[in-house]
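Exercise (ungraded).
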Amino acid sequence: MSWMHTLFALILLPAIIVGLFRILRGPTAADRMVTAQLFGTCGVAILLLLSTGMGNPVLLDIALVFALLAALTTMTFIRRTWHGSGKKKHGYSIP
Amino acid sequence: MVPVKKNMDILYHSGTLLILLGLPFFLSGTVGLIRFPDIYTRLHALTKADNVGLGFVVSGLALQSGSWAVTAKLLLIWLLVLIASSASCHLIARSAMQKNIQPWTRQ
Amino acid sequence: MINFNRRFFLRILFFSSVWFILTGVDTTSWMVGVPAVLIASGLSLTLAPPSQYRISLVGVCCFMPFFLRQSFHGGIDVMRRALSSRQLLDPGLVSYTTFLPEGSARIFFANTISLLPGTLSAELHGNSVTIHTLDRGLPIWANIQGLEYHVAALMRISPVKRKNL
């Protein structure tokens, strides 16, 4: 429908692809998780642009689900994977 | 009907302008994610830049859509991303602090 | 009890508008929508009981422009630091004691800090917020105090309490 919006979406694609480099490098699991957050926001933007570009309003709903899942992923990661079990002693404090 | 069409054109083009303004924020968010030295500064880059970028893209698309239903849905998506990313940003930073990951400082 | 009914009505109104935004003008969708909205309102009242603070409309009107302006500055600030050829970072940690009461006001405050220029809330411990900043030269205190007053106005909390702390 509109080539312009598709072009905008294509411009955003490198932002995600370059972000993959951070997953490769790490160093901590959290750094990799930040990239997942990038996928959330950038992915939503790409879907919104494509929704207008392809004239397909269903993509708006997919963007909505994407936004919801990005938040859930981070929270699950923090609670289950990275943080381990239970409450830990208060760590680093201001010198 | 000519004035109406002209009006629509102005809305459409200002929407395009807003989207164009938003794109550099996304790109610089990624650049920050790659260039910044530690997890905390990377969180800064991503949360702030991407949310502003998404704000511009959403408002641009809302101007172009010309429909209240789509505008409301776009705003809902933006609000959701805003809440989600600020909350997960805080969660990641807090966990990093509790895991004793030292913030990078300038020597 | 009247107060409780009012809260319930407000939540129903809120979830109905969300449903309306999600499904559009399709009237048959309300066959699922009405039960969903009722269940969601009941659940939300159980899980997040109404607090004593009510959101003020004037506060929202003051908060929105402040928030949009500040987060725009935050985006510009990050963009400048990310794209500059020189290293412009001077990160550090600051501790801030807030007068905002425990609960939604404080959590909202901590979450919004992350969208202000150069600040990120790293820890919330009682009434003290640990803030990570991108540049110790930024006017962090002024920004955060501004935000604190705006949040207080939003939730109709009197900022005079600061003197007691």
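Further reading is listed at the end of the chapter. For now, observe: Chain B has a mean pLDDT of 86. Chain B touches chain A through 49 residues (CB under 8 Å).
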